[in-house]
């Protein structure tokens, strides 16, 4: 899925966001957009159906998920944001990095993820899991999942 030009649009300022938003059909704002925060701390945006890894150009990221935007008092702001990315499985502790990227872009935002997804890698079978209702059990093999994020220990 990663090809030259498949990267998400870098948003480094309010002007970058305004330029990007003006090029989106109004209907696109009915759904959340795919986002990543690259290793330089820059927000990158792509349509929702985009893969997070493609949005990042195949590189590593500091944060990833989905976000929705709304106009508040004539300004764009993030109305909802999650760390939902099965390509990167970011920890909920990635929020401060996401918030810094949004601040850099001049976008108002909530105080944290509006929807948190807890990801863990099963140390028995190696599969990635989404932990639901604090049930830290692998859905693939039944093994115990760690309570500390371990998807990308490197």
Structure notes:
The longest helix is centred in the middle third of the chain and has 10 residues, at 95-104. This protein is an alpha+beta fold and 154 residues long. The protein is elongated, with a radius of gyration of 16 Å. Strands 1-3-2-4-5 form a 5-stranded antiparallel beta sheet. The chain has a two-stranded antiparallel ribbon with strand order 6-7. The mean pLDDT is 94. The chain has 3 helices and 7 strands; from the N terminus they run βαββαββαββ. It has helices spanning 14-22, 52-55, 95-104, and strands at residues 9-11, 33-38, 43-46, 61-72, 75-82, 118-121, 128-131.
How much helical structure, as a percent, in the residues? 10-25%
The overall average pLDDT, rounded, is 94
Strand order, largest beta sheet? 1-3-2-4-5
Whole-Å distance between the termini? 24 Å
Number of helices: 3
Strand content: 25-35%
Q: How would you describe the shape?
A: elongated
Derived from helix and strand composition plus strand pairing, the structural class reads alpha+beta
> Helices and strands, in N-to-C order?
EHEEHEEHEE
Largest sheet: 5 strands, antiparallel
Task: Give the low-pLDDT segments.
Answer: none
User: How many runs of DSSP E, i.e. beta strands?
Assistant: 7
Radius of gyration: 16 Å
């Amino acid at each position: 899925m990663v090809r030259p030009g498949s990267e998400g649009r870098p948003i480094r300022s309010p002007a970058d966001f305004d330029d990007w938003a003006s090029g989106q059909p109004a209907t696109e704002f009915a759904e959340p957009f795919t986002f990543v925060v690259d290793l330089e701390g820059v927000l990158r945006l792509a349509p929702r159906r985009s893969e997070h890894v493609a949005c990042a150009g195949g590189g590593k990221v500091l944060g990833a998920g989905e976000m929705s935007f709304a106009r508040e008092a004539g300004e764009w702001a993030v109305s909802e944001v999650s760390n939902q990315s099965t390509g990167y499985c970011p920890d909920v502790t990635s929020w401060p990095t996401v918030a810094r990227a949004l601040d850099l872009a001049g976008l108002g935002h909530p105080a944290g993820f509006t929807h948190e997804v807890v990801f863990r890698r099963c140390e028995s079978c190696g599969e990635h899991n989404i932990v639901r209702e604090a049930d830290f059990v692998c859905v693939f093999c039944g093994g115990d999942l760690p309570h500390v994020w371990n998807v990308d220990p490197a």
